[in-house]
Automatic annotation (TrEMBL):
<dbReference type="InterPro" id="IPR012951">
    <property type="entry name" value="BBE"/>
</dbReference>
<keyword id="KW-0732">Signal</keyword>
<keyword id="KW-0325">Glycoprotein</keyword>
<dbReference type="GO" id="GO:0071949">
    <property type="term" value="F:FAD binding"/>
</dbReference>
<dbReference type="InterPro" id="IPR016166">
    <property type="entry name" value="FAD-bd_PCMH"/>
</dbReference>
<dbReference type="InterPro" id="IPR006094">
    <property type="entry name" value="Oxid_FAD_bind_N"/>
</dbReference>
<keyword id="KW-0274">FAD</keyword>
<dbReference type="Pfam" id="PF01565">
    <property type="entry name" value="FAD_binding_4"/>
</dbReference>
<dbReference type="InterPro" id="IPR016169">
    <property type="entry name" value="FAD-bd_PCMH_sub2"/>
</dbReference>
<keyword id="KW-0285">Flavoprotein</keyword>
<dbReference type="InterPro" id="IPR016167">
    <property type="entry name" value="FAD-bd_PCMH_sub1"/>
</dbReference>
<comment type="similarity">
    <text>Belongs to the oxygen-dependent FAD-linked oxidoreductase family.</text>
</comment>
<dbReference type="InterPro" id="IPR036318">
    <property type="entry name" value="FAD-bd_PCMH-like_sf"/>
</dbReference>
<dbReference type="GO" id="GO:0016491">
    <property type="term" value="F:oxidoreductase activity"/>
</dbReference>
<feature type="signal peptide">
    <location>
        <begin position="1"/>
        <end position="27"/>
    </location>
</feature>
<feature type="domain" description="FAD-binding PCMH-type">
    <location>
        <begin position="70"/>
        <end position="246"/>
    </location>
</feature>
<protein>
    <recommendedName>
        <fullName>FAD-binding PCMH-type domain-containing protein</fullName>
    </recommendedName>
</protein>
Amino acid sequence: MAVPRKMSLALAILCLLSCNTLLPSSASSDSFLQCLSSMMPNELVFQQSSSNFVSVLESSVQNPRFVTNTTVRPLCIITASDVSHVQAAVRCGRWNGVRLRVRSGGHDYEGLSYRSVQPEVFAVLDLARLRGVHVRPGEDSAWVDAGTTLGELYYAVGTTNPGFLFPGGACATVGVSGFISGGGIGLMMRKYGVGGDNVIDAKIVTANGDLLHRAAMGEDLFWAIRGGGGESFGVVVAWRLKLSKVSPTVTVANIVKTMDEGVTDVLAKWETIILKPVLPDLTIRVVLQYKQAFFQTFFLGGCSDLVNTMNSVFPELGMTAANCNEMSWLRAMAFVYFNVPVEGLLNRTNNLRYYSKSKSDYVRRPIGKVGWESLYQQWLSQNGNGQMILEPHGAAVGGANTKTTSPYPHRRGVLYNIQYGSNWCCNANDTVAAAALGWLNGIYGFMEPFVTSNPREAFANYRDLDLGQNVIGRDGLTSYSRAKVWAQRYFMGNYRRLAAVKAMVDPSDYFRNEQSIPPLPKY
């Protein structure tokens, strides 16, 4: 049973008042800032009194709901430009009782990388300056700095090392580090696995401020950071990623079907072909909005092969050669991302115009035509701003050898992931916001009979505080038993192992937020 927010907040405040090591005094805050000043350039630290504080705070924000005056704001923002600055921030924070929240791309759906729900003194460690892709022509791996975006990664690989790819997501402004640390699902995962499955090595700054690579951190920690919520265990500063060969031509095809065109029949058929093992080169992602569905097809091959395959397994979609867009993998990723030029993948744009809220689900048995018809009639056709995104799994994601590759647990038997989203203008009144959230909660409730249960699975990269928030125990540590309410939905059977790793590498629970992995208690 989820702990009500008011009760959770009251318990947290009680603990903060009784454990003075968790709530720094003004003297401790001053000491923290003085420590930073002695260990890194002052121009990299933006205090609340700085004229640039707000602009730096908002620089990579993707949901302006969390930069209002009611948000618990950081003591300062540390814009590290070197790994030594990350180490200094961690050590100064530990010595002075100031916690860090780490931000890379800024797509954290609940904003926990730069704000706190509970009253505490904290600093933001912003990694946006730590960005770079170190790749050589012909090599099947690349070192990628933690502040790099997926778009920057795609551009570097596609221009420096054509013929190779990294199987990332569709949104170019997502940070590589956040993508991997939550597992990472994307358009090519049916062929190559999720993002966390494609990490060869990493560099992490631990709670002691030490810099470790894979051999030094050990396989348990290396496993945990590749999908178990990397911010719980330390600060990953770089990833060595596996690159996979790709043919010179890939094909993208976009087809829209409406309710009048029998979209529910097409969706019902789509569900039946996802797990076909002979189709790992084919991904058909679906976006449902209002009275239509947008079928986004991504094929690792040419148009003629795609059309022949589709006519064989999915004729209901009605694909022809006229729907095809043949191009390189790099151009395809730019095409999927709002059809920008490949240079557009380098733009680190943020969103300060629309508020949003998301939720997620997993489906293991087809919903069927009748279910889709009810969904459209009762919910989708009633809100033009709400949407559902369906990401097909199967093939390499749920293969025989992936059970322990990384902590991402939603594998064998999963048909697809669902992301529900509701958006409204930041200038809208409370009635509009309440209606948007009411629609989201309503469609989520409607879907309960069609999705997984015990637990109702959820995706860690689509963080949702409605699932529950951490509570601090009398020992000053995050409660392991209370965290189960949300953690078993994200991580399922991997939760206990993740907590055991946390107890090993960060037993004092320094790296924590409202949905961080707690240390496994010593019974």
